[in-house]
Specification:
alpha+beta, Alpha-Beta Plaits, 4-stranded antiparallel sheet, 3-stranded antiparallel sheet, 9 strands, 11% strand, rod-shaped
Length: 341
Amino acid sequence: MPCLTCKKSILANELLCCKDCKTQFHYQCLDISKVQYKELSDTDKKIWQCQGCRNVSRRNRNDDTPIGKKQAQNHQVSADSCETHHLTKEDVREVLRSVLNEEMAKMKSVLTSVIESKIKTVMEEVVALKTSMDFINKEFEDIRSTFKSSNTLAKQLEKENCALRSEIADLGMRMNQMEQHSRANNLEIQCVPEFKDENLISTVLQLGRVVEASIHEDDILHCSRIAKMKNSSSRPRSIVVQFARPKARDGLLASSLQYNKTHPNEKLNSGHLGIAGEKMPVYVVEHLSSTNKALHAAARAKTRELQYKFVWVKHGRVLVRKNESSEHIIIRNMECLNNLK
């Protein structure tokens, strides 16, 4: 509440409040000096009464006190003010408005300080975040640049790899052709039983006599057994015969094929070669390169799966035929074999 006399706000160090009616005054408005006010104890301030309340209650204070002396000089003014003055709604509004303004000013000051502190913290965090984002963006750009370079290099290497694979495949094909050509004068005799002191040239000559091929010892340049492709196989090692002339080789091969055709019930076997014991089938075939031999084995397995009737080798090439009425197919590589239907 404001001072009843001057209607202004009262500070704590200049307040006097009546203990009965709770009316508040500036001590200056009561004509009390600052020295007199400081001489008042807390008890004096708590029991102080305005002149109007003293008259109503008919209680008198000790006139020897500073307040009593001052009130004696100013009793008429105080009495009239206390007795005749009453608070109105406008007075209450004014007081509330004053208090609210003061509190709002305090709140504004506090909120401004808090908001400024929070804004400063947020700004610092934003700056730190921007620094981090700039760093991450730089790293991302470096990674993207590296990836782009790596991708370009990978495409170039892939292109070179395709070219090299094609070149290697071509070289492999040429090498296989050269290897097969170097065996043009050779024959391979398979499944002939092995003996410690065997005479392979005599065995080949005996084969020629059986199939009625004109073969002489001078036609044979070299004759030996070769290593197995699979060590686990129980078949004897094959015999490779190198002839002096392609004509001699082709004659023995053709005669062997013809003999098996004319003797379907008694095809070439170990008994025809003068080898005692159980008769074992003997096969006379072209001497294939390792690549063609693997291709021939794969062709036999594939044609059994697809129910092809014929698989044979001629001049180092693998050929297949579905049946008697179909055209033959040359199997040059595994890709051709995979395309069979």
